[in-house]
Write a structure and sequence with these properties.
CATH class of the largest domain: Alpha Beta
Largest sheet: 7 strands, mixed
Shape: globular
Strand content: 15-25%
Number of helices: 8
Bound molecules: ligand 2P0
Oligomer: single chain
Order of helices and strands: EEEEEEHEHHEEEHHHHEEHE
Amino acid sequence: MKNEKKGFARAHTNIALIKYWGKANNELILPANDSISLTLDKFYSDTYVTFSDDLTENSFFLNQIPMPKKSMKRINHLIDFTKRQYNYSGFAKIQSYNHVPTSAGLASSASGMAALAGAVVSALDSTADLTNISRIARLGSGSASRSIFGGVVHWHRGHDHESSFAEQIVSEKEIDLNMITVVVDRHQKKVKSTHGMAQTVATSPFYSTWVDEANRAIPEMITAVQNNDFTKIGELAEHSAAMMHATTLSANPAFTYFAPETIKAVRLVHQMRSTGIECYFTIDAGPNVKVLCRTQDITRVHNFLAHEFNEQQLVVARPGSGIKFTK
Ligand code: 2P0
């Protein structure tokens, strides 16, 4: 009879308020600086794993399409690490479904790797510890370590596998913080974040300043989040994003994730603020602009942005929950 172990997990994606940009250790994915993020509702990944003694290798299907072997490196690393931890020798068949529309301009690697870690660990350990799942998710993608928890989350950079994990600052019910993505360019060819950050670490003379400033902002952001101080959260988040993008322009060769429409959306955020609609921008490793606002202002911000961008370019997200092991 087949000896099978099954696991399932659902994890939501997240947006960083204090960005992770650069690694201190590439293999363990230890970041150079701490980061803080908001987990988002609506956008999530569902992952099913079946471990079996009968399988001879791992396989991964994303939205039912098999992943090529050459793209399996980090997935295999994550699975091998977990198998060693739980002293298990079988292989895994994984089916993952992304509910992160590409039209939303959000990355799916955070939710995808978080759900993978949750499914793999829960298959091998029914008393799964969320901190351990966060560490394992980190091996798949740094930002995935934060997607284990809901609300606002702090990823401690740490100095080894044990000490680099995320934890919740406040739950999704305790924070009034929403995000409207302005999808300015869906098709732009981009420098993948893994490569972009590596190039920045290696060549930007501003890089050590980035690390110092990011780490300095962490306790300030924690206090702002605990106090639900939207103004302070927004100011710190906007400054963190602007500093991260300054490091790409100071890399050699220089590069930028900005597109012309990125600047247009940033200007609209400034215009809104000058007319009394309080909102702030953040931008990841791509051209889309994410606008942070309070719940009371979602409609006003959305309508203002809708003067310049069409409905399909605007995607509203609210705070989301942490990882779940049932649907
Ligand atoms: C973040 N980003 O904090 C930052 C801000 C993008 C810009 O984490 O190499 O896919 O897999 O650890 O997590 C995207 O990078 O990179 C990211 P790896 P990841 O959200």
